[in-house]
Amino acid sequence: MKVHYGISTYQNVKNPVLTVGTFDGVHFGHQKIINRLCNIASEINGESVLLTFDPHPRSVLFESQSVKLINTLDEKIKLLENLGLDHLVIYPFTQNFSKLSGKDYVEKHLVNELNVHTLVIGYDHHFGCDRTGNIDLLRQMQKDQGYHLEEISAHEIDEISISSTKIRSAISDGKIELVKNFSGSNYSITGKVKKGDGIGKTIGFPTANISLENSDKIIPRHGVYAVKVIIEKKSFDGIINIGIRPTIDHLPNELRLEVHLFNFNKSIYGEIIKVNLIRIIRNEVKFPDIESLKNQIIIDCEKAKNILLSKSD
Fold it and tell me: Which of 49, 72, 102, 142 is 20 to 30 A from 190 in CA distance terms?
């Protein structure tokens, strides 16, 4: 898959079969559409193309609203790479871009820049200034602009919407194992390991403190989770605590993501690691003292080991 940041490297693409969307989560509904793109491209000796935007359009159009994402852009790219897609075009979404009329958007970007041969698009897709562009406009322009149009049905769009909603709900509720049921992949968090305050080490459970790459990432329900952590392409078992550590009263109530790896003693400060969340073990609670917390962590680790033994990543 060729990744194009903007349009400058998008050249000599043969019979582009194009769809447009954020594809957040890259779940089975999204995968079905990409598979259709690839099949059509194969039939017409063309190439499959996904046009997406960065930053997320809602974060530009509604600056006061927080947009929480299932995947960061880098995570989405890695997921899409495995689906047989030929081209991913990441177009910068700006205020000026959002002011284009629907007609100008189709002519300038889809036709003139992307040279679309076949457009695969949802029946409810809206685009252009004030979302005035729609499937009816695409039908009207189809003959003059010379592209083919394939509509994604209401049933399929509803499936995609439901899947995205269910994934977000599963993450927020801590039902993290359901994410894989909808997408085929574990929910993951990627970030750089930073220095913490060292409290975990003093009680026998050293942790890697993760600084998130993107503040728009959805954070799961506070609690302890069994995890598989990828460091330099190697997988390690462990647990992660997501929360504000209420037992340690003298610290500010800021969100912490702290990973404890089993049988691991290498320094990984500054490393980028990927944490695949497998299943929640318990919610975050306040313990009466540090010793009680330590005893609970021992129990958490044993539970995590049993979970991870029965799960394949």
Answer: 49
List alpha helices for 130-207, DSSP H: 135-145, 154-173, 177-183, 199-202
pLDDT tens for each residue of 9-44: 999 999 999 999 999 999 999 999 999 999 999 999
What CATH number is attached to the domain comprising 193?
2.40.30.30
Give the closest residue to 125 by CA, choosing from 116, 114, 109, 137: 137
Q: Is pLDDT above 80 for 279?
A: yes
Tell me the C-alpha distance between 10 and 308, whole Å.
Answer: 43
Residues 10 and 129 in one domain: yes
Count of C-beta atoms within a 10 Å radius of residue 110? 22
Is residue 298 one of the residues assigned to a domain? yes
Distances (CA, A) of 216 to 44, 65, 74, 200: 39, 11, 13, 27
41: left (phi over 0), alpha (psi -120 to 50) or beta: alpha
Does 85 map to a domain? yes
> What are the pLDDT digits (tens) for 160-173?
888 889 999 999 99
Question: Within this chain, do residues 142 and 230 fall inside the same structural domain, yes or no?
Answer: no
Q: What is the pLDDT of residue 313?
A: 47
**Tokens of residue 6, six digits:** 């903007």
Domain that holds residue 111: 2-167
Q: Which two tokens mark 117?
A: 């041969």
56/113 same-domain check: yes
**Are the CB atoms for 148 and 120 separated by under 8 Å?**
no
CA-based nearest residue to 13, from 158, 121, 117 = 117
